[in-house]
Design goal:
Layout: E1 10-12, E2 22-29, E3 34-40, E4 44-48, H1 55-64, E5 67-72, H2 84-91, E6 94-98, E7 108-110, E8 115-118, E9 121-127, E10 136-142, E11 148-154, H3 173-189, E12 196-199, H4 220-226, H5 228-231, H6 234-243, H7 252-261, H8 276-284, E13 288-291, H9 295-300, E14 307-308, H10 315-322, E15 329-333, H11 336-347, E16 355-358, E17 373-374, H12 376-384, E18 389-393, H13 397-402, E19 409-410, H14 416-419, E20 428-432, H15 437-448, E21 452-456, H16 462-465
Parallel strand pairs: 4-5, 5-6, 6-7, 11-12, 13-14, 13-15, 15-16, 17-21, 18-19, 18-20, 20-21
Antiparallel strand pairs: 1-2, 2-3, 3-4, 8-9, 9-10, 10-11
Helix pairs in contact: 3-6
Length: about 475
């Protein structure tokens, strides 16, 4: 199941959990690498950066017996469709957005230095441009004592790093990176050492810059001691940070416009069910069909033209990266639970599948199409035999630079659909990544394009064990 429950609440602040103190509850979305938050004094609550599937937030608020009075956004997100507007409408809460954002819906615009009061909660707005031009952070304090308990830092101050600064176009990257360096220093400088740091990104999201600490929690003091943006001077930070920015999913370019327009709540119904014949007709028409089954089972039997993206936490990111935006999408899954979980995951990035099909493993509706699954040891034998093969490495550029097989062709998996013509038409193409997941996507894309793939479903380190020579990029 992909749908993630919220994490058990963490008590913070000067008082004990409950009506006399403040608590922050974390709602994890590992599939996108993000967190949303609910801060409460035990009676009222403020929600920060909610995902589109707001049922999780409503369930949490109901279980706590609190009233959501405010829903606040740190920025117009680039990696998911916000549930902020839908949540505000469902609860009657005030929807809070940076005043500089040009949005198409009713909201409360806030700017640097503004304060939000709700029961025992006080939130101060801090302008933190960098991740986006109008980004803000929110500093949480006890309304009675004034004691600062932490900051909701969105895509500014992350654990060990900061949010990436190139999502609004390369012409803005240098300026925004410098703004990011100044913003996080100002934000961190305003916080006492024990204050919690609660970012939205940094847990696998491509909105995070390189060099994160991998921590699951942090404080202002810990960040001052270990965050590169707080340790390096401006020029070395800017140069190194920009150099470390890698590619990000293609669907990102559509998220901010959707959020600015005011997205609707996520649909709750499954798409229509189709029979195998109807799915074949869609494939024949060139439509996109994604098969969510395990890669070995897909390789053994699947419908011609289908793409394999195994169900699991990052499924939406991978589907959203390779399927063209707005293209009709049909899902194939082993059961209805997998299809429902994938629908929710895709809905978080604004993709609504148009149909679904449950493929029973033993049924005849899977079709006769297959391709071989091999190991690096098998590849070493094939290479030694002098067979006519092509080795395709679909890992990221930094992985390729760290070490790759001599003579291999490097095309990252997410570029393969548009670069398949660079590969030979004849002969087998042995496709590998670091563990098999991305290679399975690549193999299915190759077969869809009429090539003959061999899936290397193996760990990269086993290439060394198999005696294959590995060289670094020049």
């Amino acid at each position: 199941m992909i749908d993630e429950p919220f994490v058990d609440p963490v008590a913070i602040g000067t008082g004990s959990p409950g009506p006399s103190g403040l608590a922050v509850h974390i709602l994890e979305t590992p599939g996108l690498g993000d967190r949303s938050y609910l801060a409460t004094d035990g009676r009222v609550a403020v929600v920060i950066d909610p995902q589109r599937d707001i049922d999780r937030v409503l369930k949490l608020a109901d279980s706590l017996g609190v009233c959501v009075t405010h829903v606040v956004e740190t920025h117009m997100h680039n990696d998911y469709v916000s549930g902020g507007l839908a949540l505000a409408r469902a609860t009657g809460a005030v929807y809070v957005v940076a005043a500089a954002e040009e949005v198409a819906f009713e909201h409360l615009g806030v700017a640097d230095g503004d304060e939000i009061l709700s029961g025992g909660i006080r939130i101060r707005v801090v302008a933190t441009p960098g991740h986006t031009a109008h980004h803000v952070a929110y500093v949480l304090a006890n309304a009675g004592t004034g004691a600062v308990t932490g900051t909701f830092s969105g895509g500014s101050l992350l654990f060990g790093t900061v949010g990436r600064t190139d999502l609004t176009g390369p012409e803005h990257t240098d300026r925004l990176t410098r703004a990011q360096w100044r913003s996080v220093r100002r934000l961190a400088g305003s916080l006492p050492d024990p204050a919690g740091v609660w970012p939205t990104h940094g847990f696998g999201s491509f909105c995070s810059g390189a060099g994160g600490s991998g921590a699951t929690e942090s404080t202002a003091g810990a960040e001052r001691a270990g965050n590169t943006a707080l340790l390096l001077d401006e020029e070395p930070f800017v140069g190194g940070f920009i150099a470390g920015l890698g590619p990000y999913p293609a669907y990102y370019r559509h998220m901010a416009p959707l959020n600015l327009s005011g997205p609707a709540a996520m649909r709750r119904d499954l798409p229509p069910a189709l029979g195998a014949a109807e799915v074949r007709a869609r494939l024949a028409a060139g439509q996109w069909v994604v098969d969510l089954r395990q890669r070995d089972r897909f390789a053994d039997a699947h419908l011609p033209g289908a793409i394999n993206v195994e169900s699991g936490a990052p499924v939406a990111t991978y589907i959203g990266w390779i399927v063209p935006w707005g293209a009709p999408l049909t899902l194939i899954g082993p059961d209805e639970e997998t299809l429902e979980a994938t629908r929710i995951a895709l809905g978080r990035i604004g993709i609504e599948p148009v149909a679904r099909h449950v493929a029973r493993e033993a049924s005849s509706d899977l079709g006769p199409i297959r391709y071989p699954v091999r190991s690096f040891a098998d590849l070493a034998l094939a290479d030694a035999d002098g067979r006519r093969i092509t080795i395709l490495d679909v890992r990221a550029a930094d992985e390729w630079s760290d070490g790759h097989l001599p003579g291999a062709i490097h095309i990252p998996w997410h570029d393969l659909a548009t670069r398949v013509e660079e590969l030979p038409v004849d002969g087998d193409i042995w496709v590998h990544c670091a563990a098999g997941f991305r290679a399975a996507i690549g193999a299915s894309l190759l077969q869809r394009a009429g090539r003959s793939p061999v899936l290397v479903d193996d760990r990269w380190w086993r290439a060394y064990d198999a005696g294959l020579r590995v060289e670094e990029a020049a």
